[in-house]
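pasting for ref
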Amino acid sequence: MKNKRFDIFKDIMKDAVSDEMLVWLMENGFFTAPASTKHHGNYEGGLFDHSLEVTRKLLSMTEEMQLEWQRPESPIIVGMFHDLCKIDQYKYIELLGYQHKDCLLSGHGDKSIMLLSQFMTLTEEEILCIRYHMGAYETKDWDSYGKAIEKYETVLWTHSADMFASRVKKT
């Protein structure tokens, strides 16, 4: 299944990811990590499966709603890497399942942006979409969240795509 995920990833990402980043993703478990311990994607490979579903939903919404992004590959970058923060967040313990582990970097959207920024330059829109993809579940700064949506409606649709993937499809 890991090879199938890798092939799907390469097909979707095309040239948006460098070879260096691809190696880093493989070495750090992007294709095998879970997306959570108890909720959506709480199985081996759940992080990739969830990210793929968010990407597919963002691409579908972009087409159906004629969303305009700063660059054409943005829905793919945002969808695939909005939860990059989870790449090193969990460990598997026999009889207990996946558990949280101590990580050098903490945070959710902010951590995803920091990790991703090592490999590519993000647009402001991509940064805000990733930063606020959790919507009301994470931010206490409603004013900034609202301003981000007003500047880039894609911030709201990224949150909606994530909610669809985690609450409706439950990937």
